[in-house]
Amino acid sequence: MPVRVLCLHGQGVNSAVFQKQTESLRAMLPVDYEFHFFDGKYECESAEEVRDHYPPPYLTWYNTPTVEKVKDAHEQIRQIIKTHGPFDAVMGFSQGAAVAASLLLHEELESTPLSFKAAIFIGSPIPFAKAAQVGIDARAYFGIRNTLPNAHARPNRIPPHLVTDPAYLRNPAQLERASCDDVQYQMFHPTVDEVRIRLPTGHVMGMQDKWFCHSKDLVGLCQENSKVVLQHHGGHEVPRAYTEEICDVVETVFGGLL
């Protein structure tokens, strides 16, 4: 039986771009692996690295990770699984990886059946939650006043090494709601959350990536004895120069699925 892999693109690209990004990787992997690519449903500005090379639409699973929009992203993935699944594994890049990690963390929290048996996270930011009961209250970092404290007394300071550039405020229109008390941002983090992704995971991260520290901390949200980590010298990409090494990660993580 083939291993069916759900593939989730990053923000500001689309499924066709993610297919191109993983072309050399997929060509080197066993034919038993079937990769299925799908689009996020919202349009957004293009990622800088693809603007001059790939045509629109430029898509996203959410334009800013509020609890409501993360919940909606989970529903997008569940609908894909319902319509086109089941899938044995998930492979996500950037925002797509964060959405997959968030979904799996919530499934662990809710003790519901896991959507996948294995996961590959490439260049992933730390995932955000769909509920205010978990994670770090990150409203202040998104320009949202937190005059009303988090109802669940969650911490409200993000570790400094995770505070990146204005990518946090990529959607300036969100700032129009800065006075709204119902907007919540909750960032999962291993220092404040006990939940862990327990299935086999692979982590690919570039040391020149602005999300490098996020990717390292995502490793901490995964069970210790079931993860494989590859650090490379590149940036925010699926690096062709490390295709063989990434293949080793994928085959190690997916090995038990065949």
Automatic annotation (TrEMBL):
One of its GO terms (molecular function) is hydrolase activity. One of its GO terms (biological process) is secondary metabolic process. Gene3D superfamilies: alpha/beta hydrolase. One of its GO terms (cellular component) is cytoplasm. Keywords: Hydrolase. InterPro entries: AB_hydrolase_fold, FSH-like_dom, LovG. It comes from the Eukaryota. Residues 3-241 form the Serine hydrolase domain. PANTHER family: ESTERASE OVCA2, SERINE HYDROLASE FSH DOMAIN-CONTAINING PROTEIN-RELATED. This is Serine hydrolase domain-containing protein. It comes from Amniculicola lignicola CBS 123094. The lineage of its organism: Eukaryota, Fungi, Dikarya, Ascomycota, Pezizomycotina.
